[in-house]
Amino acid sequence: MADQAPVAASPAPAAEAPKCETLYIQNLNEKVKLDVIKTSLLGLFKPYGVIDVVAHKNLRMRGQAFVSFENTEQAEKAMGDVRGFPLYSKSMQISFARTRADAVVKKLDSDQFEAHKTRRTDHKKATRYSNPLKQKLKAKRTAAADGDTALPATRRPNVQMPDEYLPPNKILFLQNLPETATKEQLTGLFAQYPNLYEVRLIPTKKDIAFVEYMDEESSTLAKDALHNHKLDGENKIKITFARK
Protein backbone atom coordinates (compact mmCIF):
# COMPACT_ATOMS: atom_id res chain seq x y z
CA MET A 1 0.00 0.00 0.00
CA ALA A 2 1.10 3.57 -0.57
CA ASP A 3 2.46 5.41 2.45
CA GLN A 4 0.83 8.72 1.65
CA ALA A 5 -2.84 9.45 1.16
CA PRO A 6 -4.08 11.85 -1.53
CA VAL A 7 -5.75 15.09 -0.53
CA ALA A 8 -9.34 14.70 0.63
CA ALA A 9 -12.13 16.40 -1.24
CA SER A 10 -13.65 19.43 0.41
CA PRO A 11 -16.86 18.64 2.32
CA ALA A 12 -18.57 21.69 0.82
CA PRO A 13 -20.88 20.66 -2.06
CA ALA A 14 -19.94 23.75 -4.08
CA ALA A 15 -16.26 22.73 -4.12
CA GLU A 16 -16.67 19.24 -5.55
CA ALA A 17 -13.42 17.72 -6.74
CA PRO A 18 -13.06 16.83 -10.44
CA LYS A 19 -13.28 13.21 -11.48
CA CYS A 20 -10.12 11.12 -11.07
CA GLU A 21 -9.06 7.52 -10.48
CA THR A 22 -9.15 7.83 -6.68
CA LEU A 23 -12.20 7.86 -4.40
CA TYR A 24 -12.30 9.50 -0.97
CA ILE A 25 -14.23 7.39 1.57
CA GLN A 26 -15.63 8.94 4.76
CA ASN A 27 -17.73 7.80 7.73
CA LEU A 28 -15.91 4.48 8.17
CA ASN A 29 -16.38 2.71 11.49
CA GLU A 30 -13.48 3.89 13.66
CA LYS A 31 -13.96 1.00 16.09
CA VAL A 32 -12.90 -1.56 13.47
CA LYS A 33 -9.20 -2.36 13.15
CA LEU A 34 -7.41 -0.62 10.29
CA ASP A 35 -6.18 -3.81 8.59
CA VAL A 36 -9.74 -5.17 8.69
CA ILE A 37 -11.08 -1.99 7.06
CA LYS A 38 -8.44 -2.18 4.30
CA THR A 39 -9.15 -5.85 3.59
CA SER A 40 -12.89 -5.21 3.57
CA LEU A 41 -12.57 -2.28 1.15
CA LEU A 42 -10.34 -4.35 -1.17
CA GLY A 43 -12.97 -7.09 -1.22
CA LEU A 44 -15.87 -4.70 -1.64
CA PHE A 45 -14.31 -2.83 -4.59
CA LYS A 46 -12.64 -5.86 -6.20
CA PRO A 47 -15.25 -6.15 -8.99
CA TYR A 48 -14.34 -2.61 -10.14
CA GLY A 49 -10.60 -3.23 -10.59
CA VAL A 50 -9.26 -1.67 -7.38
CA ILE A 51 -5.47 -1.26 -7.39
CA ASP A 52 -4.80 0.35 -4.02
CA VAL A 53 -6.33 1.24 -0.65
CA VAL A 54 -4.78 3.83 1.65
CA ALA A 55 -5.94 4.35 5.23
CA HIS A 56 -4.07 5.72 8.25
CA LYS A 57 -4.66 5.41 11.99
CA ASN A 58 -3.58 8.96 12.83
CA LEU A 59 -6.14 11.37 14.29
CA ARG A 60 -6.53 13.41 11.14
CA MET A 61 -7.31 10.44 8.87
CA ARG A 62 -9.33 8.29 11.26
CA GLY A 63 -12.57 7.01 9.72
CA GLN A 64 -11.36 7.82 6.19
CA ALA A 65 -9.69 5.98 3.31
CA PHE A 66 -8.68 6.40 -0.32
CA VAL A 67 -9.45 3.72 -2.91
CA SER A 68 -7.79 3.86 -6.34
CA PHE A 69 -8.73 2.26 -9.66
CA GLU A 70 -7.25 1.74 -13.12
CA ASN A 71 -9.21 4.64 -14.63
CA THR A 72 -11.78 7.32 -13.89
CA GLU A 73 -14.65 5.34 -15.42
CA GLN A 74 -14.14 2.43 -13.02
CA ALA A 75 -13.91 4.82 -10.07
CA GLU A 76 -17.13 6.57 -11.10
CA LYS A 77 -19.02 3.28 -11.50
CA ALA A 78 -17.76 2.04 -8.13
CA MET A 79 -18.88 5.25 -6.47
CA GLY A 80 -22.35 5.04 -8.01
CA ASP A 81 -22.84 1.40 -7.02
CA VAL A 82 -21.29 1.39 -3.54
CA ARG A 83 -22.12 4.86 -2.16
CA GLY A 84 -24.12 4.47 1.03
CA PHE A 85 -23.12 0.82 1.55
CA PRO A 86 -23.38 0.07 5.31
CA LEU A 87 -19.85 -1.19 6.01
CA TYR A 88 -19.77 -2.32 9.65
CA SER A 89 -23.10 -0.58 10.31
CA LYS A 90 -22.02 2.85 8.98
CA SER A 91 -23.06 4.14 5.57
CA MET A 92 -20.01 5.08 3.51
CA GLN A 93 -19.80 8.61 2.10
CA ILE A 94 -17.90 8.60 -1.20
CA SER A 95 -16.55 11.41 -3.39
CA PHE A 96 -13.64 11.94 -5.76
CA ALA A 97 -10.31 12.78 -4.11
CA ARG A 98 -8.76 16.15 -4.95
CA THR A 99 -5.51 14.55 -6.12
CA ARG A 100 -4.47 11.23 -7.59
CA ALA A 101 -3.05 8.59 -5.26
CA ASP A 102 0.64 7.65 -5.35
CA ALA A 103 -0.18 4.18 -6.69
CA VAL A 104 -2.15 5.65 -9.62
CA VAL A 105 0.57 8.10 -10.63
CA LYS A 106 3.27 5.46 -10.27
CA LYS A 107 1.36 3.02 -12.47
CA LEU A 108 -0.07 5.35 -15.12
CA ASP A 109 2.40 8.29 -15.19
CA SER A 110 5.60 6.93 -13.69
CA ASP A 111 7.71 9.73 -15.21
CA GLN A 112 5.74 12.26 -13.13
CA PHE A 113 5.91 10.29 -9.89
CA GLU A 114 8.83 12.13 -8.23
CA ALA A 115 7.33 15.56 -8.95
CA HIS A 116 3.96 14.34 -7.66
CA LYS A 117 5.57 12.99 -4.49
CA THR A 118 7.40 16.28 -3.87
CA ARG A 119 4.16 18.27 -4.17
CA ARG A 120 2.46 15.88 -1.76
CA THR A 121 5.26 16.17 0.79
CA ASP A 122 5.22 19.98 0.61
CA HIS A 123 1.45 20.03 1.13
CA LYS A 124 1.72 17.66 4.08
CA LYS A 125 4.33 19.86 5.78
CA ALA A 126 2.28 23.00 5.18
CA THR A 127 -0.86 21.55 6.76
CA ARG A 128 0.71 19.42 9.50
CA TYR A 129 -0.23 21.73 12.38
CA SER A 130 -3.24 23.51 10.94
CA ASN A 131 -5.75 20.69 11.34
CA PRO A 132 -8.42 21.63 13.93
CA LEU A 133 -8.60 18.11 15.34
CA LYS A 134 -4.88 18.15 16.12
CA GLN A 135 -5.17 21.58 17.69
CA LYS A 136 -8.06 20.40 19.86
CA LEU A 137 -6.15 17.33 21.03
CA LYS A 138 -3.07 19.42 21.76
CA ALA A 139 -5.19 21.82 23.85
CA LYS A 140 -6.61 18.89 25.83
CA ARG A 141 -3.16 17.52 26.52
CA THR A 142 -1.90 20.93 27.61
CA ALA A 143 -4.87 21.37 29.95
CA ALA A 144 -4.33 17.90 31.38
CA ALA A 145 -0.64 18.62 31.97
CA ASP A 146 -1.41 21.94 33.69
CA GLY A 147 -3.88 20.20 35.97
CA ASP A 148 -1.42 17.38 36.67
CA THR A 149 -3.88 14.84 35.26
CA ALA A 150 -3.47 12.43 32.39
CA LEU A 151 -5.86 11.85 29.56
CA PRO A 152 -7.73 8.57 30.12
CA ALA A 153 -6.43 5.73 28.00
CA THR A 154 -9.05 4.33 25.69
CA ARG A 155 -9.05 0.74 24.60
CA ARG A 156 -10.74 -0.13 21.35
CA PRO A 157 -12.80 -3.29 21.28
CA ASN A 158 -11.43 -6.27 19.41
CA VAL A 159 -13.80 -6.35 16.43
CA GLN A 160 -13.50 -9.40 14.22
CA MET A 161 -13.99 -9.24 10.48
CA PRO A 162 -17.32 -10.80 9.42
CA ASP A 163 -16.92 -14.22 7.81
CA GLU A 164 -18.00 -12.86 4.42
CA TYR A 165 -14.92 -10.60 4.21
CA LEU A 166 -12.26 -13.19 5.12
CA PRO A 167 -9.53 -13.59 2.46
CA PRO A 168 -9.38 -16.82 0.41
CA ASN A 169 -7.51 -19.87 1.71
CA LYS A 170 -7.60 -23.65 1.29
CA ILE A 171 -10.12 -24.36 4.08
CA LEU A 172 -13.86 -23.72 3.89
CA PHE A 173 -16.09 -23.20 6.93
CA LEU A 174 -19.59 -24.64 6.62
CA GLN A 175 -22.47 -23.37 8.76
CA ASN A 176 -26.19 -24.10 9.05
CA LEU A 177 -25.77 -27.80 8.25
CA PRO A 178 -28.68 -30.11 9.05
CA GLU A 179 -27.94 -32.22 12.13
CA THR A 180 -28.35 -35.35 10.02
CA ALA A 181 -25.46 -34.42 7.71
CA THR A 182 -22.73 -37.10 7.56
CA LYS A 183 -19.08 -37.01 6.56
CA GLU A 184 -19.79 -39.32 3.63
CA GLN A 185 -22.59 -37.05 2.42
CA LEU A 186 -20.40 -33.92 2.55
CA THR A 187 -17.44 -35.73 0.98
CA GLY A 188 -19.63 -36.81 -1.94
CA LEU A 189 -20.90 -33.24 -2.38
CA PHE A 190 -17.52 -31.49 -2.28
CA ALA A 191 -15.66 -34.21 -4.20
CA GLN A 192 -17.42 -32.91 -7.32
CA TYR A 193 -14.70 -30.25 -7.34
CA PRO A 194 -11.00 -31.10 -7.82
CA ASN A 195 -8.29 -31.49 -5.20
CA LEU A 196 -10.46 -32.25 -2.18
CA TYR A 197 -8.20 -33.13 0.76
CA GLU A 198 -10.40 -33.66 3.83
CA VAL A 199 -13.83 -33.14 5.39
CA ARG A 200 -13.87 -32.57 9.16
CA LEU A 201 -17.05 -32.65 11.24
CA ILE A 202 -17.29 -31.27 14.78
CA PRO A 203 -18.84 -33.93 17.06
CA THR A 204 -20.05 -31.39 19.64
CA LYS A 205 -21.44 -28.96 17.06
CA LYS A 206 -23.25 -30.84 14.34
CA ASP A 207 -24.34 -27.80 12.30
CA ILE A 208 -20.78 -26.81 11.27
CA ALA A 209 -17.89 -28.50 9.45
CA PHE A 210 -14.59 -27.77 7.72
CA VAL A 211 -13.70 -28.78 4.16
CA GLU A 212 -10.07 -28.55 3.07
CA TYR A 213 -8.71 -28.54 -0.48
CA MET A 214 -5.15 -28.79 -1.79
CA ASP A 215 -5.14 -25.19 -3.05
CA GLU A 216 -7.07 -21.90 -2.87
CA GLU A 217 -8.30 -22.12 -6.46
CA SER A 218 -10.12 -25.38 -5.76
CA SER A 219 -11.64 -24.20 -2.48
CA THR A 220 -12.82 -20.97 -4.13
CA LEU A 221 -14.45 -22.92 -6.96
CA ALA A 222 -16.30 -25.16 -4.48
CA LYS A 223 -17.34 -22.21 -2.31
CA ASP A 224 -18.80 -20.24 -5.22
CA ALA A 225 -20.68 -23.29 -6.52
CA LEU A 226 -22.10 -24.66 -3.26
CA HIS A 227 -22.78 -21.57 -1.12
CA ASN A 228 -26.51 -21.62 -0.20
CA HIS A 229 -26.83 -25.22 -1.44
CA LYS A 230 -29.78 -26.98 0.22
CA LEU A 231 -28.32 -30.22 1.49
CA ASP A 232 -31.61 -31.43 2.96
CA GLY A 233 -33.84 -29.55 0.53
CA GLU A 234 -34.61 -26.88 3.14
CA ASN A 235 -31.69 -25.24 4.98
CA LYS A 236 -29.16 -23.32 2.91
CA ILE A 237 -25.52 -24.09 3.73
CA LYS A 238 -23.50 -20.97 4.47
CA ILE A 239 -19.94 -21.35 3.16
CA THR A 240 -17.11 -18.94 3.89
CA PHE A 241 -13.33 -19.20 4.07
CA ALA A 242 -12.09 -20.36 7.47
CA ARG A 243 -10.22 -18.05 9.80
CA LYS A 244 -6.49 -18.67 9.90
From TrEMBL:
Example GO BP: RNA splicing
GO molecular function: RNA binding
Main location: nucleus
SMART domains: RRM
RRM domain: residues covered: 21-99, 170-244
Domain of life the protein comes from: Eukaryota
Entry keywords, A to Z: mRNA processing, mRNA splicing, Nucleus, Repeat, Ribonucleoprotein, RNA-binding, Spliceosome
PANTHER family on file: U1 SMALL NUCLEAR RIBONUCLEOPROTEIN A/U2 SMALL NUCLEAR RIBONUCLEOPROTEIN B
Name of the molecule in the record: RNA-binding domain-containing protein
